[in-house]
Amino acid sequence: MGFVRDLLVFIHLIGMGLLVGMILLQLMAGREAPINKGWLHGSALQLLSGILLMVLAPATDADYNHMKLGIKLVVLVVIGGLAISFMRKESAPKWVAPTLAGLVVLNVGLAVFWN
Ligand code: HEM
Fold it and tell me: Which residue spans traverse the membrane (predicted)?
């Protein structure tokens, strides 16, 4: 099961990279540019890999802080919700891209600093 956990952490970190890539892409596209679909794909990857890591914890001998994971889940749902709401619009309000970026950075911070 060690390999499964490593694989899921690998996928989780690739998903994080995708979301960080989205921050840069959105920055280059300009503040009122449409919200890229990649936000949704990155969020879906994080949701799936994160939940699997959590559910498989007893089998992988992992011991996670459930409060932290719950907050990360809520933050991710907000990211996904914003992406779904704005990605089909021709332009997004100025606050959407910086908010998405802030929420991604928040989740990375929670993951790393809250033990
Ligand atoms: C934007 C969304 C997210 C980002 C950027 C993110 C980022 C990260 C990062 C960077 C780590 C590695 C931390 C370390 O090893 O010190 C991590 C670990 C983890 N994340 Fe997330 N995460 C996100 C969402 C979620 C969600 C929604 C869940 C589940 C509810 C979740 C569950 C986990 C778990 C269980 C680990 C520990 C993996 C292990 O070392 O065994 N994550 N996350």
Answer: 7-27, 39-57, 69-89, 95-114
Give, using CA atoms, the residue closest to atom 28 of ligand 1. Answer: 50
Tell how far the Cα of 111 is from the centroid of ligand 1, in angstroms.
5
Ligand 1 binding pocket mutation candidate from 13, 22, 40, 53 (most atoms within 8 A of CB): 53
How confident is the model at residue 88, as a pLDDT? 94
What is residue 32's predicted lDDT score, i.e. its pLDDT? Answer: 84
8 A C-beta contact, residue 36 and residue 25: yes
Query: 56 near 11, Cβ under 8 Å?
Result: no
What's the mean pLDDT in 3-13? 97
Are 12 and 50 within 8 A, CB to CB? yes
Query: Can you give the residue ranges of every domain in the chain?
Result: 2-113
Task: Check pocket membership of 87 for ligand 1, CB cut-off 6 A.
Answer: no
